[in-house]
Amino acid sequence: MSAPLGLAVIGTNWISNSFVQSSHESTKFQLKAVYSRTIDTARKFISQTPSVEDASSVKAFDNLDEMLTGSDIDVVYIASPNSFHYEHGIKSLTAGKHIIVEKPFVSNADEVRGLYKLADTKGLFVIEAWRHIQEPNFLKLQSLLDNKKQREDKFGKIYGAHVSLAVYNPEYAKAPEDGKEANVVLPKFSGGCLWDVGCYSVAFIFALFGTPARQSYLPIVIRTGVDGGGNMIFHYTEETSKHKQKFVVHAQSSKLYVSHAPTEIYCEKGTIRINGVSSITEINTIEFIPHGSSTGEELANTKPEYSDLLNLTWEAREFGRIIQEGDKKAEARLRDLSLDILIAMEEMRKSNGIFFGSDR
Ligand SMILES: NC(=O)c1ccc[n+]([C@@H]2O[C@H](COP(=O)([O-])OP(=O)(O)OC[C@H]3O[C@@H](n4cnc5c(N)ncnc54)[C@H](OP(=O)(O)O)[C@@H]3O)[C@@H](O)[C@H]2O)c1
After folding, report:
1. 107 in ligand 1 pocket by Cβ < 6 Å?
2. Candidates 9, 10, 12, 13: which one to mutate for ligand 1, based on the most atoms within 8 Å of Cβ?
3. What total number of domains does the chain contain?
4. Atom of ligand 1 nearest to the CA of 80
5. Rounded Cα distance, 286 and 100, in Å
6. Which Gene3D superfamilies match (predicted)?
């Protein structure tokens, strides 16, 4: 077994804590350094991360360039506000470190290409941290649909799908009394629902069905100029669908209200229904309900091995494996997916007049 990869973290919110704990659980990584804009926050993060057994073995930094000189760091996990991902990625790659970048990767497709180009000249890995498409229940669903014989025997043709992901966040719904808007609703931080949670639906759809021929988005634009949510349509043709079929996928995504609707895939022989925390992130159940039946056949594990802050363990295990084994083919598949997602998201955003600071 290879030695754990030395890990550094940028960003000290709860998601970084979750990634560190999950990466330790995966045994593929060992935290070595934490960067924060303030040294006290970095120290607090280290002391408050339960999986760090010896706090003195992890260094705290308030200077990013200094942290990146560390010879014990192999991989940098980037969980800063979206608009900083590119700059932090370029700095980390320039310093010779592999990067794992939180979704939604960066602000536009040119920034994706910029990261890939630099990584290639340096022989480094660049991985976008999509959690939900590394989870076993998603992988089970994906393999059921990818296996042509199994798919045709059990489900028949795919006619379409409805993907639902809407989670209420008051920061979108109302202007704060002190006038200080959250990063996540500001164009200068590459905010908005599509870059926040809509991207999960896009990744789920593209990973499951392939890259569509075209897409459109009808958003509700909020006071700050970003989208509070909206409806997306993805058109698949026989040439573009992974399953060589023509169909349409609809996705509703919002931070202005909650959806309790499941995600459904409509097939010739019945409906696949997916339930979970916000339906597609952390899938709890997947069932197939044949036409004429009121009960479904369970297709997925109802008790996943990891939950809560450890639910990034599957992705950490896979990303650690890819880097340790130098699995360039697996990385290339993830890279292609991430680029296609960003191209589509950028088009959906800009066609609605939503622009980020980095677009100018
Ligand atoms: N995979 C998932 O399930 C998941 C869940 C949540 C978030 N995310 C992603 O993780 C990333 C971070 O999200 P978040 O909600 O944690 O963002 P955030 O709270 O706005 O910022 C993350 C960290 O960046 C630093 N930061 C905050 N404001 C900054 C500013 N103005 N300039 C420079 N640095 C600043 C802060 O760390 P310091 O104060 O220590 O510098 C903060 O802890 C996003 O890309 C988000 O999409 C992913």
Report:
1. no
2. 13
3. 2
4. 24
5. 29
6. Dihydrodipicolinate Reductase, domain 2, NAD(P)-binding Rossmann-like Domain
Alpha carbons 351 and 354: distance in angstroms, whole number: 8
Q: What is the CATH number of the domain that holds 165?
A: 3.30.360.10
Q: Is 102 in the pocket of ligand 1 (CB under 6 A)?
A: yes
What does the pLDDT look like over 235-260, one tens digit per residue?
999 999 999 999 999 999 999 999 99
Q: What is the best residue among 80, 88, 165, 358 to mutate for testing ligand 1's pocket, by most ligand atoms within 8 Å of CB?
A: 80
| Ligand 1 atom having least distance to the Cα of 189 | 31
**56: number of Cβ within 10 Å:** 7
pLDDT range class, residue 315, cuts 50, 70, 90 = very high
75 has pLDDT over 90: yes
Euclidean distance between the first and the last CA atom of the chain, given in angstroms as a whole number: 47
Q: Which residue's structure tokens are 């609809």?
A: 250
The domain of 255 spans 136-303+329-359
Average pLDDT of the chain to the nearest whole number: 96
61-70 tens-digit pLDDT: 999 999 999 9
Residue 31 belongs to domain with CATH number? 3.40.50.720
